[in-house]
Amino acid sequence: MCGIVGYIGNNQAAPFLLDGMSKLEYRGYDSAGIAVYEKNHIRIDKCVGRLEALRQKIAGNLPEGTVGIGHTRWATHGRPSDVNAHPHADSSGQFVVVHNGIIENYMALKEDLISKGHKFISETDTEVVAHLMAEYFTGNFEDTVKKVLKMIEGSYSLVFMCAKEPDKLICTKKSNPLVIGLGNGENFIASDIPAIISKTRKTFIMSDGEIATVTKDGVWVQDIDGTPISKKVFEVNWNAEAAEKGGFEHFMLKEIYEQPKAVRETMRGRLAKTGDAIEFSELNWTAEEFKDINKIFIVACGTAYHAGVVGKYYLEKMARIPVEVDIASEFRYREPIIDGSCLAIFVSQSGETSDTLEAMKESKRLGARTLAVTNVVGSSISREADQVVYTYAGPEIAVASTKAYTTQLLVMLLLSIYVAQLRGTITQERVAELVANIKEIPEKINRTLENVEQIKVFAKRYGSCEDAFFLGRSLDYAVALEGALKLKEISYIHAEAYAAGELKHGTLALITEGVPVIVLATQPHVYEKTISNLREVKAREAIVIGIAVEGDTEMAKHADHVIYIPHADGELAPLMAVLPLQLLAYYAALTRGCDVDKPRNLAKSVTVE
Questions:
Q1: Per the residue annotation, which of 57, 295, 538, 604 is the catalytic one?
Q2: How far apart are CA 270 and CA 276, in angstroms?
Q3: Quick check: 563 and 581 in contact, CB under 8 A?
Q4: 35, 140, 178, 390: least buried by Cβ within 10 Å?
């Protein structure tokens, strides 16, 4: 997944493709490539690395042609390499495709194609689509695309080229963005508006299931059954900088609102179609393999560490196995008691976090089995680990992590259920209940993100404070840790999180009149005790902002303000409860005039100890 561009018209395609891809570089990527119809064949040029490497590779020998597609790749299947870079073609080179998203059933399709004589050269799921086009070509480009779409499962934005019908491009989407730009005697395709904004401001925003045939003279949109679809032209009125952010003021806010999609991508292919099991094809563990594991370590830094704290709760409760959570920078210096009976899980958004990587190497030296949880395919941690689970959050530009955290939480939840299944510590009925609730999470995140106006008010009212406290019990305490980190790292407000029961052991000395205290109370089994701690805070005249579940009438009796999240199973509440904390930090930073995306003294990927 990452950036898609396409061009068809009277002008040379390659210059536009390269320029359009450069406008999408902000999204992050690991390789780049273009395909242009040149002299009766489709020429493909691609390479690993930055777009500049591709420019240098074809300098003085640009492909000449007026139809082409391009792609900047963020790896999901296969490490970053020249051969895994997009575009991908079938063996004959007649069909070429670029793709954002994940083809869930690609392995079954690939095995079938291999049995029919197809030879694959990449590790990607995308190459399968090109080979399907070749295998099932009907003699008609559009009909073959429809036939192939009925065979694939997953999420995608796809753009197809066909050497047999070079006067058109065909594109479609499902759960991944795609836009078509309208010009005079030329038309454009892109995964995001910045790629085309310098050429046109007239666009079609594609919807799921729509198939567009694009020529230099027009665009025809239909559904998979051939029913024509009338599209409304959307006039883009953003400037180029705003376009990169999707119309949002900052990347952080854009990424907060990308969380429903990110969560869908994380769960895709991991919820059994029967609805009563969790599957990890990349692990494929057996109960026999896991029976000798008697302890789990979760090792990470910063936000990823906080996701690990939630993971400890999940694993111990569901899988009934002891879990230690360690800060990576401390782990290898404390001489941990770890051996072959231990599973060590290392969590890192970038996969390049130096402390986490070194902790992993130490664990391997001591004989532990290692598992990486990361967002970046081909990263150092993914290569070093025995096995890896990807979060599929997509590129995250802002330094303060948001969607990477929520996808890490979801991986921890899914992994905990998976291990519990192996160990027989969870009933099938409970798994089915959890799976049903997990399926509802993206929509509940959407609902939570709609409740923003009161958060803006709170941020403006209390943004000038220099101290804030976050309280919670059980999973709420784990989420409070992340809420405090978000507030301090982008607004520079001194913020601390405490287990609410610890108040009386020293923290109450810091609670004075007017100090903002954010109290999370989403866990039913400790709810009454949390309310009791809240009342202790109110007795010291602090300002309390409560985070509670819809239908909670008690919280409003004690807190000054309440932010409600949709009702969810207690284990799933953290996925919603963290959202108002992210938004509160964001708007507090705006109130204080801080650089939200690039907070002082911090870097996105911490590659030094």
A1: 604
A2: 11
A3: no
A4: 140
Give the separation between CA 219 and CA 214, rounded to whole angstroms.
Answer: 5
Asked if residue 6 lies in contact with residue 177, where contact means CB atoms within 8 angstroms, the answer is no
State how far Cα 372 lies from the chain centre.
16
Query: What ranges in 440-503 are assigned the alpha helix state H?
Result: 441-450, 453-462, 475-491
Q: Which of 2, 47, 162, 342 is catalytic?
A: 2
82's tokens: 């020249």
Burial string for 33-43 (b: 16+ CB within 10 Å, else e) reads: bbbbbbeeebb
Task: Indicate the Cα dihedral angle 10, 13, 17, 20, nearest 10°.
Answer: -20
pLDDT for residue 386: 95
Give residue 608's pLDDT.
Answer: 47
CA atoms within 13 Å, Cβ hemisphere of 185: 4
DSSP state of 480: H
- What is the rounded distance in angstroms from the CA atom of residue 344 to the CA atom of residue 332? 12
- In the prediction, which pLDDT does 605 show? 57
In this predicted structure, what is the pLDDT of residue 607? Answer: 46
CA dist 182 and 169 (Å) reads: 14
**Which residues in the chain land under pLDDT 50?**
607-608
Q: Which pTM was predicted?
A: 0.81
Q: Which value, in Å, is the radius of gyration of the alpha carbons in the chain?
A: 25
Find out whether 130 and 81 touch, Cβ atoms under 8 Å. no
Q: Which of 280, 321, 317 is nearest to 297 (CA)?
A: 321
Cβ 427 vs Cβ 586: under 8 Å = no
* CATH architecture assignment, domain 2-244: 4-Layer Sandwich (3.60)
Q: Is-catalytic flag, 47? A: no
User: CB of 354 within 8 A of CB of 328?
Assistant: no
Phi, psi torsion values for 348, nearest 5 degrees: -155, 125
How far is Cα 69 from Cα 188, in angstroms, rounded to an integer? 10
Per-residue pLDDT, 176: 82
pLDDT at 506: 83
CATH class of 253-439: alpha beta
- Indicate the fold that domain 447-591 takes in CATH: Rossmann fold (3.40.50)
- pLDDT value for 155: 85
Q: Measured between alpha carbons, how far is 416 from 361 in angstroms, rounded to an integer?
A: 24
Query: Is the CB of residue 591 less than 8 Å from the CB of residue 463?
Result: yes
Residues with Cβ within 8 Å of residue 166, at least 6 apart in sequence: 37, 42, 67
- SS3 at position 48: strand
Q: In what order do the strands lie in the sheet with 323-327?
A: 323-327, 295-300, 342-348, 369-374, 387-390
SS3 content of the chain, % helix, strand, coil (to 5): 40, 25, 40
Q: Which helix (H) or strand (E) holds 7?
A: strand 2-8
Tokens found for residue 319: 């899988």
Domain ranges of the chain: 2-244, 253-439, 447-591
As a whole number of angstroms, the distance between CA 347 and CA 279 comes to: 20
Query: For this structure, is 342 an active site residue?
Result: no
The CA distance from 566 to 154, in Å, is: 27
For the chain, the distance separating the N- and C-terminal CA atoms, rounded to the nearest angstrom, is: 31
